[in-house]
Amino acid sequence: MSTTPQTTSPANSRTLLLPYTLGLIIAMAIVQSVIAATGGEVTVLAGILTAVVAFGIVVWLWRNLRVLKRVRFGVAIAHVIAFVTVTTSYNLHAIVRLMAAGAVDRTASDIAQAALGGSWFGVTVVMSALWGLGLLIHLIGSVLGRGWED
């Protein structure tokens, strides 16, 4: 006997998750553009904008949870998409800062401070590590549940 929900037809993951992914990419591109335009530091404004994106993720999940649960590993994939999009946007921005800092005559410690010092440390290393740990726990739970979440 199968433990998969078969009461309704399976959801189309492409029509469900592709718009979500594209929306997140656009939202984080806007956040990173604002950071670049306001001096390149992660400020309260960047935090507020990222919180707005996070709220959008929660609202999307809440509105689409029933359909998402009909996609095998659907909730986990939505979590992965959010993690990858948000953390990659910050890490790519930090890499651009690192390359820009390396283009001028500076010491390695100056370059590291410019790229990962202060506010950038939190959104690159700390956010990636803590959110990554939560994602790993979620993925292990999804695997144990064979891709279905109740």
Describe the structure.
Helix 1 packs parallel to helix 3 (74-102) and helix 2 (44-68) packs antiparallel against helix 3 (74-102). This protein has helices at residues 13-37, 44-68, 74-102, 108-116, 119-144. The protein contains five helices and no strands. It is elongated and about 55 Å long. The longest helix is centred in the middle third of the chain and has 29 residues, at 74-102. The protein has 150 residues and is mostly helical.
Brief rundown of the structure:
The protein is mainly α and 150 residues long. It has helices at 13-37, 44-68, 74-102, 108-116, 119-144. It is elongated, with a radius of gyration of 18 Å.
**What is the alpha-carbon Rg in Å?**
18 Å
Given as residue ranges, the uncertain stretches (5+ residues, pLDDT < 50) are none
Mean pLDDT: 87
- DSSP helix fraction: over 70%
Major sheet: none
Instruction: State the shape.
Output: elongated
Count of alpha/pi helices: 5
Q: Which terms summarize this structure?
A:
150 residues; mainly alpha
